[in-house]
């Protein structure tokens, strides 16, 4: 019985420990916001900012390889998703759409793992921008960042995110008019 008690206490000490503290999480998100704001400045150097964002992503992913509490891991995935989204945006702006797509997919995984709808929305925006410019420049046929529109009953259709969640639903104003009005997306309806 003593051995079992010692094993439980050893596990409890491990579970209680973390390689991240709240200050670190706040600092990572602050650095992410700073880099994004810097990129929006007209005189920014995209290559330098890409390098800085890459180093920040390496730090975040390195922390994720360690041990942290579930809510801290979620916050790290959130920061990682935003940084990968920024890397995707810069890559696309510099004409590297395949690399931007890879960053966008990683950002999407981070959004899913963080379970953050704001990050999910932003990542879809980044991936949509990449797909738009890639298609416009003739490199690839049109590829939306989500599943295609799915027809449903009564003149409605909806776009679904990976995993089946509904992104947008449209309904004809009048039968046969061909005009549609978007309905507000509500998380959890799907």
Concise overview:
The chain has 190 residues and is of the alpha+beta class.
Span between N and C termini?
50 Å
Strand order of the largest sheet: 1-2-3-4
Number of helices: 6
Q: Which strand-content bin applies to the residues?
A: 5-15%
Radius of gyration: 21 Å
Order of helices and strands: HHHHHHEEEE
Task: Give descriptors for this structure.
single chain; alpha+beta; 2 domains; four-stranded antiparallel sheet
Summarize the structure in words.
- The protein is an alpha+beta fold.
- The protein folds into two domains: 20-136; 149-183, no CATH class.
- It has helices at residues 2-16, 22-40, 46-64, 70-93, 97-114, 117-136, and strands spanning 149-152, 156-160, 166-172, 180-183.
- It is elongated and about 65 Å long.
- 27% of the residues are buried.
Topology:
Elements: H1 2-16, H2 22-40, H3 46-64, H4 70-93, H5 97-114, H6 117-136, E1 149-152, E2 156-160, E3 166-172, E4 180-183
Antiparallel strand pairs: 1-2, 2-3, 3-4
Helix pairs in contact: 2-3, 2-4, 3-4, 4-5, 4-6, 5-6
């Amino acid at each position: 019985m003593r051995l079992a008690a010692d094993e439980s206490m050893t596990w409890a000490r491990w579970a209680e420990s973390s390689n991240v503290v709240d200050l670190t999480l706040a600092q990572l998100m602050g650095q992410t916001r700073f880099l994004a704001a810097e990129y929006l400045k007209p005189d920014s150097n995209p290559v330098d900012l890409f390098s800085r964002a890459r180093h920040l992503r390496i730090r975040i992913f390195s922390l994720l390889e360690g041990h942290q509490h579930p809510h801290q891991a979620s916050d790290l995935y959130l920061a990682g998703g935003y940084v990968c989204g920024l890397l995707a945006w810069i890559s696309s702006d510099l004409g590297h759409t395949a690399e931007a797509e890879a960053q966008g997919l990683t950002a999407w995984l981070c959004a899913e793992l963080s379970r953050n709808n704001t990050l999910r929305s932003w990542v879809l925006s980044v991936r949509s921008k990449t797909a738009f410019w890639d298609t416009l420049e003739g490199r690839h046929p049109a590829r939306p960042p989500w599943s295609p529109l799915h027809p449903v009953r009564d003149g409605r259709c909806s776009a679904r995110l990976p995993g089946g969640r509904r992104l947008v639903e449209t309904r004809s104003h009048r039968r046969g008019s061909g005009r549609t009005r978007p309905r507000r997306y509500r998380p959890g309806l799907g």
